Amino acid sequence: MKNKDIPTNTNFFDLVFQVVRLVPKGRVTSYGAIAKYLGTARSSRMVGWAMNKSHHHPIPIPAHRVVNRLGILSGKHHFANPTQMQQLLEQEGIKVKKDQVVHFKKLFWDPEIELKL
Fold first, then answer.
1. pLDDT tens figures, 68-109
2. Other CB atoms within 10 A of residue 84 CB
3. Beta-carbon count within 10 A of 78 CB
4. Category of 26 on φ-ψ map: left (φ > 0), alpha (ψ -120 to 50) or beta
5. Are strands 29-30 and 66-67 parallel, antiparallel or unpaired?
6. What are phi and psi of 16, to 5 degrees?
7. pTM above the 0.70 mark?
8. Beta strands per DSSP E along 1-117
């Protein structure tokens, strides 16, 4: 983990939540990019599990901004309804077509680049 703004004395899910809160409106990141940033490159599935739990967290977590490595809304079924993830992204100006972020590479927010010290 590289960002001095994220404390090291917390559990993995909390670290994931802290990174996701830093994703700007109108941008998306991936499970794998978060895992890599946290120094656990092979734990993208754990990031997904954290996103599933994020809906019950007392502090809002913009889980809708986390998609798979191809920009697909693979976590959409974990929202209140299957279209909520897309609706939240579209409210932020992100176009989604057939459950995939349009212009994914352009909108991709890489914590390893964006959160450099």
1. 999 999 999 999 999 999 999 999 999 999 999 999 999 999
2. 13
3. 17
4. left
5. parallel
6. -60, -50
7. yes
8. 29-30, 66-67, 96-97, 100-101
